[in-house]
Fold these 4 entries.
Entry 1:
Amino acid sequence: MKIVKIIALILLVGFLCIQFVPTNLNQSNIVPKTDFLLINNPPENLSTLLQESCYDCHSNNTGYPWYNKIQPVAWFLENHIADGKDELNFNEWDALSNRRKKSKLKSIISQIKDDKMPLSPYVIIHKGAVFSETEKQEIIQWMTQLKDSL
């Protein structure tokens, strides 16, 4: 029984200590001129949907939830956001070539169709990020037209 208490105490101290390890927050007050929404000017409803469902992980400005202050959750979010931005950063959209833009749009369309994006762990907590069938069709149609115009 004494060993269990010692292990529990060590785990508690370890948990408390990791709370002081800082994370790099993905926040910026600047919307660059290369931003997807500025360049492509989608309809207002689609712009709102994209910001709510995509921009936290795929832009330079994440709206962090309260639980981001707790480690190891903050590390998980930091890595997840970095991975998302490596794949696609909407703030750097216009820096991509037209060929790359078409490829990204094709991927976005495919992932929305297949319900791979937004990610299910994200929509569990962010209910506003869930696309209705109508919203999915609107986004897919608009992005298809955008892809075809490039």
Entry 2:
Amino acid sequence: MFDLEGKIAIITGGNGVLGGAIAEGLAAQKVKVAILGRTKKTVNAAVEKIEEQGGTALALVADVLDKKSLEQAKSKLLKQWGSLDILVNAAGGNRKGATIGPEQTFFDLSMDDFSAVTDLNLQGTVLPSFVFGQIMANTKTGSIINISSMAAQSAITRVVGYSAAKAGVDNFTKWLAVEMAQKYGDGIRVNAIAPGFFVGDQNRDLLLEPDGSLTARGKTITTQTPMKRFGKPEELQGVALWLAGSGASFVTGNVIPVDGGFSAFSGV
């Protein structure tokens, strides 16, 4: 269906909730999947899970903000599998100091945390694209899929650092799509997925009470989401598979919402 069997992919942050779901979706389509992350234990666990499901996976322990470690990961990938067809930039995250608490104002922002969050989410997308995109430039074929956020498209209260970084990811996605097409032809495509609200380790306490019921913020979000619920990680798989495969051969420079209608709803 997606024409992906035998392709080779790297998923940065593939040891996380959303990146892991995308990695599993690719592996189920017979894609060879390299999981790249900083923590050896969680990277190996993600690889083992894919292998237990019958997929083929490779562990790459590297930091998306460290060019040397990414170059080492690229060398390991090329030695093992010889090429690269798909790069999913799913590494990212937030910090408490880069958000504004209910009783805080903008002037309580930690600029150190703001810088750390913008580095991780924006530079952590640019640098892997720089390192691994060179393989695609040499072969003049490939699909780069960045992970953006609804926070990039609308002003979401409290989330200042992450929102700014993901807005940068949107712009970089469009810029790189144009650059690759103009310099290397129509075989390299660059797009982004913009998830709506999904429950992960970092935001669970903001969205859910210990008993699983919604917090006040969780209720606000689901009220603004026409489907009246949070997304499930596996619901990112379909659009990722489409963007990775030949069915999206004329699609580049786009940011695709997967948000239950959040971006379409005015609130009225």
Entry 3:
Amino acid sequence: MADNLKQKVFNIIKQRNLCSYMNNTKWEELRNSMYNDMPFPPPYDIKYIDIDHSTGDNINKDIYYYGDWYETFLLYGYVSIEWIKIKPVILKHRGCLIPPEVIDETEELINVLEKYNIPYTKENNIFTVYGYRKS
């Protein structure tokens, strides 16, 4: 199964003329740092190279939940990740009559990405880490 997925991914990479930006070590550093270096594991959206759509479109909305950085990576592995969009902001519910608290850990995420030399782009406070991209 794993060999079939790898072959499928490599065929797509060649077909779309993509360039690799991350390796397994970088993905591991990113995944581990989301739990060890961040105040909370930020929510994210992920796009796999062999699937035509991402896992969800909630990343542009206000989010009340943490990201599950272990499960997703373990299910599919790193080789098939086209990109991950990370939103280092969550809302913390405080009650029915009080607006939620906005917890913004943008600076911490930038520090993590720079600490591990992980290339990223930033647009509207959403960080994109590319696994593969057109060169």
Entry 4:
Amino acid sequence: MKVREKLRKTLERSDKKSVTVYIVIRFLILICLVMQIIHNQWNNAFLCLLTLILITTPFIIEKKFKIDLPNTLETIIILFIFAAEILGEINNFFNIFKHWDTMLHTLNGFICAGIGFSLVDLINKNSDKIKLSPAYLLLVSFTFSMTIGVMWEFGEYTMDKVFLTDAQKDTQITDISSVYLNENGENKSVILKDIEYTKIYSKDQNGKTIETTIGGYLDIGLNDTMADLLVNFLGAIIFNLIAYLYIKDNEKWQFVEGFIPTKVRKVKK
């Protein structure tokens, strides 16, 4: 009850637009949760519960660290979590829409760059003893975003190895270059091009042999991981370019403040 009461008070002090988005998204997640329970999809039901917790994090961060998350940033974070977990994972948007994952990782790079920028910008603006250069602000912003992107890929790899999920989506390719295929054991790649199909043999729980044929060669996650990191890099670069312009002329590029958390100056009533 204490946790709910604290959350209620935090929401009351938050911007009405962010709270409205939060309430609507929470309602949609609850509907999804009920549907997953009805269909005995317990893994998805757990994911719904996790998403309910995650969408409260912007408000908890504001309360815990006494910072003000801009309305734009709060809304984007909530929608991002919903798009990734509920739409992407449970409703299979990752497979239905080809570039859904790419869009989310690009946005993640942009958002995390903004958060990284704000971490040092808060120190810069609220300390008389520290004066950091614009170049340093941008460097921290970029490295913070890329670190989060790498940690996310570590998480996907761990999930795939430990729980046999497919967070790192597989890719069918037709060309490979591999030293492993060199019959003489030399450090020279054997190149295979225009691979038409690959047959995969495995056994089920009863020991029966299962044969699967795919059109090409199966890359298990490398292409997906590198693509995710590249678009994360792109998102971070885009934010840094805009942030640089903001530093030079914060009046003209004032919209950037919608992505940068600031220190709370007074308690909202």
